[in-house]
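Co-fold these.
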Amino acid sequence: MRIAAAVALLLLASCKVSEPPAISVEDPWARATVPGQAGSAAYFTIFNSGGADKLIAVSATGANASLHSTSMTGGVMRMRPLQSLDIPADSTVALDPGGIHIMLSNLRQPLSAGDTIRLQLKFEKSGERPVDAAVRPGEMPESQM
Amino acid sequence: MRRARLIVWAIVAVTLAAIAVLMLMSPQASPPQQRTVARTDFGGPITLVGADGKPFGTAQLVGKPYVLFFGFTHCPDTCPTTLARLVKLRRDAGGDSAFHIVFVTVDPERDGPREVGAYSKAFGAPIVGLTGSPEQIAKVEKQFGIFAQKVRTGGGDYTMDHTATVLLFDRNGKFVATISPDEQDGPALEKLKRITAA
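Predicted complex below.
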């Protein structure tokens, strides 16, 4: 019984069920489009200093937006739509080139460096968050590249 | 009490077993078909179509080292990331003329000469964009052990699963090494310097 109680306590502690999430979205950017292309990708980092949350929907002004993951197995790149993205309690979730990204398609206008594109993120608990992603040129990826 | 403890342990055991089964069944756990290509079958001369719509062959590359990357222009993430990385590494390895960066589409249906041409110009440095007939592309994929598969995404649209490994060739067109997408810049640069120096 003691073990059962300990397991239950551990589960409770790791869930942080009662605490509300505290979400901030930092460094949003989108890659400039290649001439003739109506698609691109956007990235940002989600900081959460509270309880767990979930990114459940994304939209963009002037484009279709959807959450995608890129996986790499045996050198093969596979891109798949993600229904939602878990934001655990006290976590940082980064959307980065080569990983999870917002796919932008059917862009009504090309994206040029210096532009911004408005993204609307919908979190299960934190609700809607508008984000203005800065457009950066394709030849200047951030992060580990 | 003793019985309760037994029950708890039984639950723990069943849970662990279930997790193990789930892990074994999950797609990550099943290794992808490794394409081991015998060196004798690997490579060979390529016949494709350049951005100018004219035939393009290996002869137009040799004399300078080159790297081959297969992708598609509708690719929003991996392809621009890889090409931008190669441009940056080439500058680190000796400059824009140190070797050719060759981009071959795996999506000849949507990527004609015009598309690969425009795409190759978007990275601020020279990139050779190549396409071809579906048969020519299929042949080159086979020559270099490149996996490519169309995946429907709904609404008539599709994306491509494809090998994102970069293939490195010396100035004589001899295959030397590969750079995998998850490889760090350090070892990748060392390999590129090797083909540049050879």
